[in-house]
Amino acid sequence: MVESIDYGRLMHRAMRDLIRHVLDQVARDGLPGEHHFFITFDTQHPEVGIAPWLRERYPDEMTIVMQHWFEGLVVDDDGFAVTLSFGNQPERLEVPFDALRTFVDPSVEFGLRFESTGEREESPQPDVPPEDPSPDDDETPKRDADVVSLDRFRK
């Protein structure tokens, strides 16, 4: 018999399922309107698949921006894979949902932060999304993936 309900673990699974559902919809239909995502993940997670030079450059965590150009977005129950351009060089990234640290859609002020709770799974915490760092007056679409540090958005 279970002695208590592990709400943190249940919430963790529900929030990762929400992200899976959103990314699955984007893979099928594309990004609607002004939606775009800042996704931070743990590059040390054993199931993360990134080029060695990216892992060397981002040894602990990496934030990707899915906005103007990405291709080959594939989502399954365990994570997602996407091709982004880094300096006009396409790179395939494979990110398990368990490696996520933050997921933010600044266009609608939505964000989740996954905090580590020691031995248990991480528990999601509502996150105040950052202001969109792209300048309002820049109408030129970017062709490279933006990797940003969320430190500049933290209070």
Brief overview, please?
The chain has about 160 residues and is α+β, with helices and mostly antiparallel strands.
Q: Note poorly predicted spans.
A: 117-146
Main β-sheet description: 5 strands, antiparallel
Task: Give the structural class.
Answer: alpha+beta
Number of helices: 2
Task: Characterise this structure.
- The chain is of the alpha+beta class and 155 residues long.
- It has helices at 7-29, 52-57; strands spanning 37-42, 61-66, 71-75, 79-86, 89-96, 100-105, 110-117, 120-126.
- The model is unreliable at 117-146 (pLDDT under 50).
Characteristic key phrases:
8 strands, globular, 155 residues, 5-stranded antiparallel sheet, alpha+beta, 2 helices, 3-stranded antiparallel sheet
List the helices and strands and how they pair.
Layout: H1 7-29, E1 37-42, H2 52-57, E2 61-66, E3 71-75, E4 79-86, E5 89-96, E6 100-105, E7 110-117, E8 120-126
Antiparallel strand pairs: 1-2, 1-6, 3-4, 4-5, 6-7, 7-8
